[in-house]
Amino acid sequence: MKARRLVVGSLGLAGAGLATLAVGLRVDATRAWFAYLDAWLFGTSIAVGALLVIMTGHATKASWMVITRRPMESVAATLPVFALLFVPLAFGLDRVYPWANHGAAGAWVAHAIDHKRVWLSKPLFVVRTALYFLVFCVVAALLRGWSTENDARHRPELVRRMRRLSGGGLPLVVLTLTWASFDWSMSLQPDWYSTIFGFYFIAGAYVGAIALACVILPLVSPGRAHAAFSPDLAQALGRVLFAMVVFWAYISFDQLLIYWIGDIPEEVSYFARRTAGSWTAVTYVIVFGHFVLPFFVLLNRRLKRHPVVLAVVGGWVFVMQFVDVYWQVLPVHDQAGARPHWLDLGAALFVGGLSCAWIVRRYRTAAPLPLHVPELAEGLGYEAAV
Q1: From 181's CA, which of 61, 133, 193, 255 has a CA 20 to 30 Å away?
Q2: What pLDDT does 153 receive?
Q3: Beta-carbon neighbour count of residue 223 at 10 Å?
Q4: Is residue 228 included in any domain, yes or no?
Q5: How many angstroms separate the Cα of 95 from the Cα of each of 105, 128, 333?
Q6: pLDDT at 228
Q7: For position 225, what pLDDT does the model report?
Q8: How many Å apart are CA 265 and CA 81, to the nearest integer?
């Protein structure tokens, strides 16, 4: 009954968000499309990040990660939803991407992207996005299907398939997400490029997914899955969140440092735009909120072992990851400074509400823990090292 109320409530919020976006398309169409892209890009990155978490668990045979499998499978199951949500965005590309509307692009941008004109074309962009989602959805569906099939009847070959697909498919999924990040986020400023941007985007996606797992696990249905989230398992999950927050910060700083040292105008344009006006304050919020604060909290072993504290930290990091994606997208439109808009809330409600309803529905269709897997008993009895 609780799950049903949550689904109905989430769909209600999604409906309110959709109505808000519909009004926004009449009031300020360009701002509405930017808000929608921001929410869609964040949600998609979290879904792919959840897929990476699943594949990491299978490939490494980490016994304790068995507790994250069903929640992450449910989150990754939203990938077909985000593929469908891209369809309306395909009709608004010229509103958000300068390369899609050459008449609105400045002379410098037009000259800078002249040699990219074939690659940065709307038909090829849509085809590439379809291919990206094909890879993500097929891998997620196979892992989910084999996992639930193994619940019904133990088949060792299914476990081997999941491990082989995860180990062999990780490079493919990572490379696909790298190219997707170039298209979906980096091409918002087509006269700028970074060879490390893919790592930055992937690190954020993984951090967001792990942070969401920290929030979901203490909230899942009472019973075996709830009891499984012991302090030792919370500590293990907290360690991964800590490591990925540090990795995200390292990649972010590395990217900034390289361009700052070079100090070439066209190369620092990305950061110059995101430190203009009140965007400077947003940058500092990300630095301290996404790294400094979680770093010192997660450094404490005792705090990591408390599921409620870990859930609060995970929720905070999840919100900061949303701010980071906002920082990637909105400076292209609001160049003078950050201007939060009611359309941002509408887009977040629509995409978030729809995603939440789908996640809950998918989670309820399978056992809370994967059954008949070799690492289950060891994972439930996991003891963290001091």
Answers
A1: 61
A2: 84
A3: 10
A4: yes
A5: 11, 19, 10
A6: 63
A7: 45
A8: 40
H helices of the chain, in order, are 2-27, 29-60, 66-76, 79-90, 93-96, 107-112, 122-152, 156-184, 197-216, 224-228, 231-262, 265-273, 279-286, 293-298, 301-304, 307-329, 342-363, 376-380
pLDDT in tens, 346-362: 999 999 999 999 999 99
Q: Does residue 46 contact residue 75 with C-beta atoms inside 8 Å?
A: yes
Contact 313, 297 (CB under 8 A): yes
Would you say 199 and 343 are in contact if contact means Cβ atoms under 8 Å apart? no
Closest Cα to residue 213, out of 320, 313, 142, 63?
313
- Domains: count for the chain: 1
State the chain's mean pLDDT as an integer.
Answer: 91
DSSP 288: I
| Position 386 in a domain | no
Q: What is the Cα–Cα distance from 284 to 183, expressed in whole angstroms? A: 26
Distance CA 16, CA 354 (A): 11
376 vs 290: which has the higher pLDDT: 290
Boundaries of domain holding 277: 2-369
**What gap in Å lies between CA 354 and CA 364, rounded to an integer?**
16
239 is a domain residue: yes
Give the global pTM. 0.94
**Portion of the chain with pLDDT greater than 90, in percent:** 72
Q: Tokens 């190369």, residue? A: 267
Is pLDDT of 316 > 70?
Answer: yes
- CA distance linking residue 346 with residue 327, whole number of Å: 18
How far apart CA 386 and CA 374 sit, in angstroms, is 25
pLDDT band at 70 (very low <50, low <70, confident <90, very high): very high
If you ran DSSP here, which 8-state letter would residue 276 be given? S
Contact 146, 180 (CB under 8 A): no
Q: What span, in angstroms and rounded, lies between the C-alpha atoms of 300 and 239?
A: 10
Q: Which residue has the tokens 């609001």?
A: 334
Question: By the 8 A CB rule, do 254 and 347 touch?
Answer: no
Question: How many other C-beta atoms can be found within 10 angstroms of the C-beta atom of residue 170?
Answer: 17
Q: Looking at the domain assignment, is residue 324 inside a domain? A: yes
What band does 374 get if pLDDT is binned at 50, 70 and 90? confident
